[in-house]
Amino acid sequence: MIKKYKLGEPIETESVVDDIELTSGIPQGLVSGAECTFCIEMSEDTRVYGLGETVRGINKRGWRYISNCTDDSIHTESKNSLYAAHNFLLIWNKNSTVGYYIDTPEKVEFDIGYSESDKLFIRPESPNAYIYEITPDLSGNTSEECGTDSPLASVVRQFRHIIGKSYIPPLFAFGYGQSRWGYKSREDILSVITEYEDADIPLDSVYLDIDYMDAFKDFTINESAYPNFEDFVKSVKEKNIHLIPIIDAGVKIEDGYDVYEEGIKNDHFCKKEDGTPFVAAVWPGRVHFPDFFKPETREWFGEKYSFLLDKGIDGFWNDMNEPAIFYSEDGLREAFDKIRSFEGKNLDINSFFEFAGIIDSIKNSPKDYKSFYHEYKGKKIRHDKLHNLYGYMMTRAAGEAFEKLCSDRRILMFSRASYIGMHRYGGVWTGDNQSWWSHLLLNIQQLPGLNMCGFLYSGADTGGFGADCTEDLLLRWLAVSIFTPLFRNHSAMGTRQQEVYRFPHKDWMRGIIRLRYALIPYLYSEFMKAALCEDMLIRPLSFVYMDDERACDTEDQLLIGDSIMIAPVYTQNAAGRTVYLPEPMNMLRFDGDRLIEEKELPPGDHYISIPLKEVVIFLRNGHVLPLTKPANTTAELDLNDVTYVCYGALEDSYKWYRDENAHP
Ligand code: GLC
Fold this sequence. Notes:
The protein is of the alpha/beta class. It is 25% helix and 24% strand. The protein is built from 15 helices and 38 strands. The structure holds alpha-D-glucopyranose. Alpha-D-glucopyranose (GLC) is lined by residues 181, 209-210, 246, 319, 416, 431-432, 490.
């Protein structure tokens, strides 16, 4: 059951695609507090899921989250906002299950037992929002293709239904990708490919970070570093390897640069109050931001991707689209004036901190977000009122263009900033994480929330983006990322290089990556079923074992598809870990891609030793895990050559989803 309520005059986000009749008033479950605050009482056993890409655990209770797409690379638990705004909550206990979607592009604060441990407050920044209240619908919820829903699954499925089907990538996007900010030239890329070949490690894609562009200009190629780019793309494709370039939101201001000139001529850029284009700075220095809210601007920018599509490119990642602002022209001027005012003064503790904070405060400044405008549905609207939709609209520009330019094939697309609705056009990666063990756990815990919000194609920078990665961390991270649809090793310039072939135990890493390829028939099939049935690929245990308190409290094990559970090691120097089994399961131990042990385990706690080179998977009772022979690229996988590992009396035969369209 879904009820839609309207508060004030909300801005349409186009995240919901279904027409739902309005119910008057406010949702019964939301006891209205002060203006624009909603309150839900939480009993001791209430758990709160959702919010997609946020810090902290799967159960969000006990912290304050603010939906405000933010370019911030230090994802500590003290943060309130990351790159995305995913305003969906699933609140449940023994007696009730309910979902809320707060649809507004403005900031929303979710205070989930932070101010008062037994209350959940929702505080939209202004009293304008659509609120969707979703309760389980268990009547006739069984279908042959999509199975039976639990109350939790029913709420998620109904929500997913109203927001439209998730983006589906090409098959190669399920292969392993290598990326690093700092590959400078064609030679650097070739050397990565050669090293992978020499080490006999599978690889499907190499990512091109900002260095492939000419002076960080979108839709240009640095010709001296990448001569004959098109031939290069083609020669790499002959090895079944895809090059995936980055596209940034800001367009460099430079006379003679076609994208800039066309943008000015045809009025595609965001403007200040006085009607002049807003000037911010990102990688290339001064840029303008395209006003992706205008359909004609989306069309114009989207068609620009054909500059690269025409050269054989078939995947992209959209970045800096919160949008990230290093500084604005006005902000910089003010900062210099302020700095000058300190000159020659005796700085005491207060004035020194104020002085030291000046430079920091110019980055992603709230004042800048209030100083430019969009044209949306015939109105001029200040950016901060629409902020959380900017990355969504940028990725929508690409998605709409792909539908037009290459409707016969799938293009890989994922973005850093996102809002619900963008899941129809692309996936997400979780941004600039760090090579920290705590971020490996964060990666595990973000996945169910992302899946609830429709972002099935998602994953983190494997090995961590910032900071130096160690061999053991990378091994453990690979052992998690082999289960996420997006599987990419990415790191920042200046950090330790973390391509797997650089480590002494690269053979162990090869084994784990080969296991990923063996799992692709299963992962692809489960992904497709989740996308088509509006379901989750990655679920917390409670979705299946709702009456099992221990299972519901488990925050470091996940169900991947219908057949398997994973319990990854995510702590330093651990030789194994305790795993909780809610039902008898078959433990499958893999040394790389070789299945070396199968052991039936009864329900309860088990300490499982998991050496660094091994991966342990738990096969659910009555289920099947199809495995194929690994290959060095997805194109070389023989998807017909599958063996089945089965456990217990099978309830049903395995529904193996295969299709013709998976290849680009
Ligand atoms: C941003 C992205 C990161 C990329 C870098 C340079 O920080 O999040 O993935 O490597 O920009 O383009």
